[in-house]
Amino acid sequence: MRNESDGRYKKKREDAAFRSLEAKEPDEGIVFGRNAVKELLLSGKDVDKILVARGEREGSISVLVSQALERGIPLLEVDRKKLDAMCKGAAHQGIVAMAALATYVDVSDIIAYAESRGEAPMIVICDGIEDPHNLGAIIRSAECAGFHGIIIPKRHSATLTATVAKSSAGAIAHMRIAKVSNLATTIDALKKQNIWIYGADMDGSVYYETDLRGPIAIVLGSEGTGISHLVEEKCDFRLSIPLYGKVDSMNVSAAAAVLFCEAARQHFGKQ
Question: Which phi-psi region, left, alpha or beta, contains residue 186 (left: φ > 0; alpha: ψ -120 to 50)?
Fold first, then answer.
């Protein structure tokens, strides 16, 4: 004899089964399998990096590796178990590509966009932001504050994954993001275009007492070690946020929001 509680139990089992199936779906932005990765490379779409199972360098994979190297796509050799986990147990054939969920632009496109709006360029440079939630939050705050673009390095950085897109609350679709091989060289090029470089640093000048008008780029360092030594040497100024509590630092995305809002006030607010 069946009763109402039996029906609820059956529904719970069905819901659990659906959740189990959903959990086995690979994350958005992950392309796996030799033919799928081949087609992705042929498409010319942006690829953040390619992971190859350790020891898999023969046959068609060697061809794909060569094509990736020609395009300057970062390659990582990892244990097969890591690929198994990324693909939720699906057959990956020893190769996984992480495709960007947005199209990267050139740094020149960011500057051109600012000029098209009749505004001084406002740029964010992320130096080693590896947490995708932080990168997404930074993108969101930058877009809200009217920044024209963000620059990230090819290596040692979170890339435009589904987690970043979700954390940005849709801002990723409106923000111009450039991915470069060398941040120091990029900063030198920005300086030649009269863009002042401000590094976020605990020992810098108080941010609201600093002139942030005109063409600027704000550099944010990694969550653990801050701005790298080489990039720090390239900064024209250093910005700090006074703290009055017992904790000695802010999360990088929270600090970014504070600095971005002050820059926006000076650029767009009534003086």
Answer: alpha
Residue 58 has pLDDT above 80, yes or no: no
130, 70, 139, 54: which is closest to 102 by C-alpha? 139
Which residue has 């360092």 as its token pair? 221
Cβ partners under 8 Å of residue 94, min gap 6: 34, 52, 53, 56, 61, 80, 83
Would the CA dihedral through 258, 264, 270, 271 be positive or negative? positive
Residue whose tokens read 């496109």: 109
CA–CA distance, 118 with 205 (Å, rounded to integer): 29
What is the number of other CB atoms lying within 10 angstroms of the CB of residue 181? 11
What are the tens digits of pLDDT across the range 229-263? 999 999 999 999 999 999 988 999 999 999 999 99
